[in-house]
Amino acid sequence: MKQHAVRTHPSADRLPRQEQLAWSFAEVAADPVEVEPAVVEMIGNRIIDNAAVAAASIARHPAVVARAQAVAHPAAPGATVLGLAPGRGFSPEWAAWANGVAVRELDFHDTFLAAEYSHPGDNIPPVLAVAQHARRSGRDLVRGIATGYEIQVDLARGMCLHEHKIDHIAHLGPSAAAGIGTALGLSPAVIFQAVGQALHTTTTTRQSRKGEISSWKAYAPAFAGKMAVEAVDRAMRGETSPTPIYEGEDGVIAWLLSGPGHVYEIGLPGPGEPKRAILDTYTKEHSAEYQSQALIDLARRMGPAVGDTSRVRSIVIHTSHHTHVVIGTGANDPQKSDPTASRETLDHSITYIFAVALQDGAWHHERSYAPDRAARPDTVALWRTITTAEDPAWTRRYHAVEPAEQAFGGRVVVTLDDGTVIEDELAVADAHPLGARPFARPQYVDKFRTLADGVVAAGEQDRFLAAVGELADLPAGELHRLTVTVTADRLGDTPATSRGIF
């Protein structure tokens, strides 16, 4: 990896574009290096993973609305929209929008946690949509997706956004633009301009994940993907971007991040170095914020020892700073303790999640969030006994560089009404690459089969999985096979959702 020191420069410096971070991204994207077999396999896994969670959310209101908006923008040849027949083509930016919302709605696909949070699978909808519309090949697609993952993961390692209350999609806009550039075989000069435009239009605040969390949480990454598609389109037509976008004296670092005195170190692959970042990412077994994954598994393990939860006097979850202040009581969000809170809010409440997982010994993407489940009196009583506390040791492990040292879980101390103390801890989720049951292709297929059951016909499931099996060898113009179709009665469409401006 080549390290890039990135800081603010006065306009008088006239910083050459070859010394700008956006140009470095463009060079990585344009590098013709081939994708390694293990990376191709993992890209296939994540395409399956995205389709799985999209199938489960296909009739949920945000996905239905986004799809209705996309349907208003047909195009030829166009890109596919999940749920609809592959013969129907739609403008790629709107297909990326609809598919991005469907993938993101349940907060149930892949993740990478470092200095910044990320869901790098959000790169797939925009890269795939453009590749379909442009009639590219499977090889082009995997190269583009590998770039998207690489840029977003490398940014997440080196540049923290949330400490400045900037949402993580500010890393997704540039990564998706770079990935599209790779898939289309664009020059560094064009990709450079697209990256700058995509970043400029996707720097938003973290209020979308704070307090009362709304359905925009699902739309935000889709918005970044849509902006990336539009940015590439403009750059291909010769339009330019704010420059230097990161390093300018009125740029992102100077005013949105750590300021003119700060230097960020961003590691990127050098010329000819394979893009392997996707191999450092991990998916979710449970539909909840990633930092709750290991704690759900721990709750399931501790349940038999705790027994009757009415005897619980207190539960303290000792965990990392990120978990404590984002989904724990350190967030100081009363909404996280409200039984009438939105699903999106409960998804970001580890106190709620741990209570339900402890009582049920399981977690389900719908039943665990049902209003009657959240309002159950015994659950509310248990929920109110749970607090989180930052533990420096868990914070250090959260930020560890070595994968074997990284930890995204915590230690739980349960005190019963007779003073009995029950303690246990878990560093990583069972599905994590270093967990008890790491996900590989069979687990991704099982997740897809489970979530698609009753939504996608068995024969259609088989057809889709067979197409993914041929991923890198799919001929140009055959990428429309990488979607799933469902019958109209499963789409959740209503007259109300089809009404809007267009």
UniProtKB/TrEMBL annotation:
An annotated Gene Ontology molecular function: 2-methylcitrate dehydratase activity
Enzyme Commission code: 4.2.1.79
Keyword Metal-binding: no
InterPro entries reported in the protein's UniProt record: MmgE/PrpD_sf, MmgE/PrpD_sf_1, MmgE/PrpD_sf_2, MmgE_PrpD, MmgE_PrpD_C, MmgE_PrpD_N
Residue ranges that the Swiss-Prot or TrEMBL entry lists as coiled coil: none
Subunit structure: Monomer.
Family per similarity comment: Belongs to the PrpD family.
Protein known as: 2-methylcitrate dehydratase
Organism of provenance: Pengzhenrongella sicca
